[in-house]
Amino acid sequence: MGAMESKVINLRILVDKKRDRVVFAESDKDFVDILFSFLTLPLGTIVRLIRNQAPPSVLGCLNNLYKSLENLEVGLLQSEKHKAMLLRPSNSSEHLCRKLKFNIDDTEPTKYRCHHDSQDLYLIHENVIIEDDKSGGVFVNGKARFMISDDLKVMPLSTSTSVELLTKLGVKDVDVLEERIVKVGKVEVLSLLRLSLLSMKPLTDLFLLKNVDCSGASTSDSAGQFHSRYRIDKLRGCKRMTIKIMLRKSDGKVLSAEAQEDFIDYLLSLLAIPLGAAVKCLERSPSLGCITNLYTSVQELSADRHLKAEYIKAKLLSPMHVSQFGYKSQLLGTNENFIPNSKCLFGLLPSGDKVDLYGHQPFNPNPIGGKGFINGPATFVVTDDLSVTPLSPISNIFALNRLSVPISDLEERVVCIGGEEVLRLLEASLTSTSALTSAFNLYLDEAKMEK
């Protein structure tokens, strides 16, 4: 048994026996640190970690996007490294996550290159020095204790808050309550990651109703539900893209889209976006369920009393790509301009050694994806559920035939994609199994009305 598998966290939970549900849990730093680490994980990492769990888990349409990338021939991308790094995107907080009691992310640490005595040295991302106050904890103050509601709201311990939770859940008789101690290991953490994305009661589902099939529980196929919430000013002036969509006129369903490399670059870039960055871009959308509650909890906790430091709070609320993943058309503003600190780098070498830092650049001076990920010019077909394949008109015709769509019911539309559509598609990719229809249907309705 490995070291990680042998570690467990004893978690104290309060159970409503009458309704068979968890009211809340009490925890120290270890469990809450793990919960908050979910916000730092790139979406592609989350797909990879949860897709093989039982029961099978589906994260919106991202599973299909991830599988499509796996199946794309390397020649369609700028290089094999582009594909490998999108399938296993680095976490810009990896140096912190490695300190967790359970670090479920097995992605290789990011390396940086320097030159020493005519040879290249590769240094991992630990060059960021963390001033430890010796209180323990990774993201939270090691001396603080917390209560976690069933829907993953993390709060400081408080009797009044516990009474509020009991009242909210309609618990009037203390006799229906029972204290239990449950053990949390790596398997439970992976299950909790899955449930936090697919359920509004993940603690209950994990500890009381194990193996509940939550696949698709948080997904929605209702179209046009995202339009009114966004402030588009933060993406004003972003590069606009054009795609051709094939619409089923009878019900407005988007069957597929023809898109060039710029749109595919955007879709693939979603795999490298940290979960917390997606929540921030979508302004804490309720459609993201318990993950929005986690994010809001970080906002509301004191950086002085409950979290390790203000910069830790910022890393959780605005997690960034590692610098190698930036590309010039990144539309969501989540690139990290990380410059290694030379003193930190020196500290990893034998005393007195000097290092020439190639301009303080990552080991690849040109960020992976600096010119995009796809080796264009190229045209692709994207299905409603975000499966991506190279364009083949013959294959498309037979695909439409399998959908039993009469040719007379088809209509091609040209859609211009800017900041608003980019955000709608981000949310749809996380929450819907029909991402194109969900993201663009309202736009199409408006276009039809104008016409």
Keywords:
451 residues; alpha+beta; five-stranded antiparallel beta sheet; 12 strands; 16% strand
Could you explain how this protein is built, in words?
By secondary structure, the chain is of the alpha+beta class. It has one domain. The protein has helices at residues 3-6, 29-37, 43-50, 62-71, 80-87, 94-97, 159-168, 186-198, 202-207, 261-269, 275-281, 290-300, 310-317, 342-347, 393-402, 419-431, 435-450, and strands at 9-16, 21-27, 111-116, 119-124, 146-149, 154-156, 177-184, 241-248, 253-260, 379-383, 388-390, 410-417. It has a 5-stranded antiparallel β-sheet, sandwiched between helices. Strands 11-10-9-8-12 form a 5-stranded antiparallel β-sheet. Strands 3-4 form a two-stranded antiparallel sheet. Mean pLDDT is 80; it is low at 118-130, 215-233 and 337-366.
